Each structure stands twice: as C-alpha cells, then as structure tokens.
Amino acid sequence: MSERGSGLVGLGEFGLIDRVTARLSYGPAVLLGPGDDAAVVAAPDARVVASTDVLVEGRHFRRDWSGARDIGHRAAAANLADVAAMGARPTALLVALCIPPDLASGWAEDLADGLAAEAATVGASVVGGDMSASPTLTIAVTVLGDLGSRPPVTRAGALPGDVVALAGRTGYAAAGLTVLSRGFRTPRLLVEAYRRPEVPYPAGPAAAGAGATAMIDVSDGLLADLGHVAQASGVAVDVRRDAFEVPRQMRDAAQALGVDPYTWLLTGGDDHALAATFPPAVALPAGWRPIGGVAAGSGVTVDGRQWEGPAGWDHFR
Amino acid sequence: MSERGSGLVGLGEFGLIDRVTARLSYGPAVLLGPGDDAAVVAAPDARVVASTDVLVEGRHFRRDWSGARDIGHRAAAANLADVAAMGARPTALLVALCIPPDLASGWAEDLADGLAAEAATVGASVVGGDMSASPTLTIAVTVLGDLGSRPPVTRAGALPGDVVALAGRTGYAAAGLTVLSRGFRTPRLLVEAYRRPEVPYPAGPAAAGAGATAMIDVSDGLLADLGHVAQASGVAVDVRRDAFEVPRQMRDAAQALGVDPYTWLLTGGDDHALAATFPPAVALPAGWRPIGGVAAGSGVTVDGRQWEGPAGWDHFR
After folding, report:
1. What is the pLDDT of residue B313?
2. Which among A106, A253, B67, B310 could bridge A4 via Cys, Cβ 3.0 to 4.6 Å?
3. pLDDT exceeding 90 applies to what percent of chain A?
C-alpha cells in the first residue's frame, strides 16, 4: 500500500475522484471542469473533433514495464495524436478509469498526473471522467479538439503524384517494447520512447495549413497505417527504405536481439508519428520529411516491392 | 457461438469494427463519422458539453440479467441523461468496448444496435470508438451535446425558497434489479425499467429554458444526488414522501421481498430521472412535478427529518 493511498476500498469512488480532480488545472478552452454531470468545452469554430482510445492492462501496457505516470503520458498521447492527425489542436480529455479495488490511490493520482502533463504540452486539460472498480485495469480516454476553421484532413484525400511525408519517429517504441519483453531495461533511448512517446503534435495543424491531402496517426505501424490511407484514398503508396536512418542504439539492440530493425521502423506502432500526403508542389512544413510517393493503384510497397514480414498490429490477433 | 458471429478471435479488431459501424446511421450533427483518426461533430453555439460513464460487467450489468441490446440502451441512457441534466441536447456518442476474445461478434453488434437506438431517440449518433480484447467486458461511453445558446445548468445554483422538482421515475430500476438479484424475472414493469430506463431527455432543455437554478441526473439515488446539489449550492433540500406514489407492482414486489418501497423510490439509481430546482414563481414545464423545497442550511431531509437507511450507491463500497 502506497504511503499516499489507503486504496480505493477505503477512499470510495467519490473520495478518489476528489483526490484526482484536486490535482488538475484547466486551460482557457475549459468553460466548466469536472464535478458536475458534464463538462463544457469551447469549440470556437462550431465543430468539435472527437476520438476515443482504450488501453487494457496486459495488452496495451504492463505495470512492471511502465510507471503510472508513464502510462498516463502514453494514454493521453495516443488520443492527442488522433486529433493532431485530423489537423486539429487538442483541447480536452475525458478519462474512464477501471481499477482493481485494492490498487493504492497513489497509482490513480500518478496516472492522472501523467495524463494531465501530456495534455498540458499542447494546452489541453482533463475535464471529466468516470471511475469504477474492475478486475482488469483499463483506461479509456476521449479527446476533443479544435480544427481552427480548417477542413479536417482525413485518410481519403491522397492523390497520385503526392509526396508521402513523415513527422516524428517510428520504430523506437516498438524496439523499446521488444527490449522490455526480453527482460532488458536498456537502451534507455528505446525504453523511454516506449514509455513516453514523443509525438510531433504541432506538425498536424501545420500539415493541414500547408495543404496536406491525407493524414494519419501511426499507431498500428507505418505500413499498416499507410495501407489505411491507400485504401481510403483509392491509391497506391510506396515507401523508400533509404528515407529511414537506423539509430545506433536501435542497430545494436536489433543485432543483440536478432531482429531486422526495419521491421521496427516500418511496422512498429506506439510512437504516434504522423504520416501525411502533400501535393508535389508543396514545401513540407517544419518537422516533416519525405519518405515516399503516391501512385495510381492500390496497396503499400517498400522500394516498389511488397513488404515481407508482419504488417502491423491487430489487438485481437 | 452465435450464428452471426465467428467471434472476435476470427474477425479481428478491424473486422469487428467494420461489422459494427456498418450498422450505424448518422444525424445532421455528424460532419465526419467513424473510420478516420477522429470524428467531427457540429457544436453550433461554439461550446460542447461532454461526459463519460463506464460500465463494467458484474458491477454495472450482468449478461444473464440483460441482453446485449438492453445493455446498449442502458449504457447510452446513462450518458445521454448527463447531457440532458446540463440542459443540453445530446448530439454524439463515442464508445470504447473491451470484450473477451471468445465472445461472439453478434453480441457486440447487438450492443451497438442498443446504443444507436437509444441515441436515436434524441437525434444523437454513435460517431466513433475503439475496441480491445479484455478479460473483463467493459463499456466506456462518452457523450457530446449542444447547449442551444443557453448557459449550462449546474448543481450549484439552487437558492433557498426554490421548488425541488422531478422529471421521470425513481425506484423502478432499483426494484427491478432487486427482483432480478433474488432470481425472479417479473414483474415485467420493474425488470424492464432496469433493463431499459425511460429517461425524460427533453425535460432537461425544457427545465433550462424555464429557468431551473440547478439540475442533476439521478444516477446514485435521489437523496444522494440531491445531496450533491445541496453541497454544491450550499443549501438544504427537503423531499416530501407524499410526492411519491408507490405503483401496485412495486408495492407487491416490496411486500414479497420484504423491502420498504421508499428505499427504492428515494435511494435507487439507474432510472436516470432528472431532479432540478426552480424559483418559486416559475410554472414547472411539462413532465416536471414538485417533490420538495430548498432552504438555507445543508444536507437532505425527508419530511423534515434525516432519512434512516442506505443513502445511495458508491461503486467502490
């Protein structure tokens, strides 16, 4: 039992909610915060972007691999990245937390700190939520966002001739997860990338402003997610392997663990990079680099050929 | 295994999401529905009301007491009522569903049908969500709503001299739950009230329009929820027992089961009635009836005295 917590059994649902909400602070978009039947959030252009992601212990995280704060960062990042991938700015999070009754209350408070800290990096706030006891630790996060009067950038607008570009890293989190799953705790670069993804949030609205034709958050793995873009847009996407640098720590870890590092780079999820397509005449905004091209056809290729190996991640398989 | 479903193991996450979203339809507030990184929903007055509720199997529902469609209705109702209790009109739901991998896909489809059907009664739509395998069947729902240019009605505005009023039923769902928990399946009136609450959604915006000073969704039980209003408003609330009629089926069930029916009426949750306070000069809108009054002080009384018995419901106790 944590020194801070008497556990949920002792505090009760309302007591724990009070402890958690006492730790929060609110950005200017929050017109009414937690404590009532619902929150009220500003939606300046009369539209709101909304997305939900759920994390289940043992499937999306493990308490022996990540601290509560880390898990909060990662749960928030997965959602905030979805809003950025529409070209929008996140404004608010709502969190449904299901926790084993004997888990010390300090765990939930640390989780809330992580969620709030990650949201604060983009000026967003935790505005509401719900809590229940459950045998399975589960965190469902809903994010709201503001499009800033631009149309949303969907997966469906890529055109033949477009440039495929990437903002942020891929493969780092997947490599970190492999390292942890083999019982190691280093290299830190990879393990920390898994625990707290570094998401290029501002690159989303920047891409929308520059005229990106399609955009997606890389959560299932780059090739799988570009596959979603190819399918929704009715086009073919090709990725160039030489657009990816294998950092030293990743090369060393790959060698030690007997893994092809390009499997991490091209099919690893959880870094929440953003992938987008731009008309060829567009100068890519800061943070974006070209990694391939769009052509007539269907499917995703690497250097013109089908990728041999695992394509992505399906949480039911 | 259902005749419709090969189960989640066979379909995978994307396959099941496709099956579920194929069943949905969208109201005018849905600017972009499921299938992208996020949905886009209209927020006509540049604000959005948002709330999240989570239901955990064995704690908030049991599959042997309610069908998947019923559980969908109830999960949606719990959320839609929170928006109505702010004086707003629900526009959209997002659903995070965690399901045991061997559960037949027909179950998730039926759940989605129930969620969508309940949302459709107020013109709202399911616009997004997420799905994961989990050992514990868990449904987290987020609801969005539109205030129609009115200020939100919070729990904090009740004033001494106000009338306390109720829209909808209390105690029916709690009675139905007691009946089910004792192994009975009738009276149908009570069991069905538990399975599919009849929520007076339009009474929320109507109360806001009429000048309600405070409002709350009765989910923890009338006395507990009026306690939240009393605390947030810094007032005392008194409820009159004679404002409540005990219907015949409830009286019979109470007698057979050895329960005081007023325990159901005054402390039972899950019907999602709305309770509000109105200035004494206001003519109550249709669907509302007076049940008590507000005075200076603190706490909740029944006929001027403290209520002896269970006060409400805390999911951790």
Report:
1. 46
2. A106
3. 86
Identical fold between B7-146 and B163-302: no
Question: What confidence score (pLDDT) does residue A16 get?
Answer: 81
pLDDT at A54 over 70: yes
List residues bridging with B93 in a β-sheet: B126, B143
Two tokens at B186?
A: 């009738």
Measured distance CA(B301)–CA(B157) in Å, rounded: 19
Contacts of B83 in chain A (CB under 8 A): 37-38
CA distance A75 to A114: 9
Dihedrals phi, psi of B7, to nearest 5 degrees: 85, 160
Cβ-based neighbours of A180, under 8 Å, separated by 6 or more: A62, A65, A191, A194
Residues of A in contact with B152 (CB under 8 A): 31-32, 36, 38, 40
Q: Tell whether A37 is in a known binding site.
A: yes
The binding site of B for substrate consists of 60, 270, 313
Assigned CATH for B163-302: 3.90.650.10
A101 prior amide bond cis, ω within 30? no
Query: What is the 3-state composition of chain A as percent helix, strand, coil, each rounded to the nearest 5?
Result: 35, 25, 40
Find, in chain A, the residue whose alpha carbon is nearest to that of B220. A14
Per-domain residue ranges of chain A: 7-146, 163-302
What mean pLDDT is predicted for residues B191-220? Answer: 97
Report pLDDT digits (tens) over B32-88. 999 999 999 999 999 999 999 999 999 999 999 999 999 999 999 999 999 999 999
How close is the nearest chain A Cα to the Cα of B252, in Å? 33
Q: Do A52 and B143 touch (CB under 8 A)?
A: no
What sign has the CA pseudo-torsion B99, B102, B105, B107? negative
Chain B nearest C-alpha distance from A255 (Å): 32
The helix/strand/coil state of B205 is helix
Of B38, B43, B55, Cβ closest to residue A83: B38
Cβ–Cβ gap B142/A42 under 8 Å = no
Average pLDDT value for residue range B287-311: 92
Q: Which chain B residue has the Cα nearest residue A233? A: B36
pLDDT band at A306 (very low <50, low <70, confident <90, very high): very high
**B42 to chain A, closest Cα gap in Å:** 4
Using a CB-CB distance cutoff of 8 angstroms, which residues of chain B are in contact with residue A39? Answer: 49-51
At B8-21, the pLDDT tens digits run 666 777 788 888 88
- CA distances for B169 relative to A66, B65, B87, B178, B276, angstroms: 46, 21, 18, 16, 14
Q: How much is the average pLDDT of A178-189?
A: 94
Tell me what the mean pLDDT of segment A185-191 comes to: 95
Closest CA to A176 of A76, A66, A311: A66
Under CATH, which number does the domain B7-146 receive? 3.30.1330.10
CB nearest B82 (choices: A38, A51, A140): A38
In contact, A48 and B40? CB cutoff 8 Å = yes
| Nearest C-alpha in A relative to B143 | A38
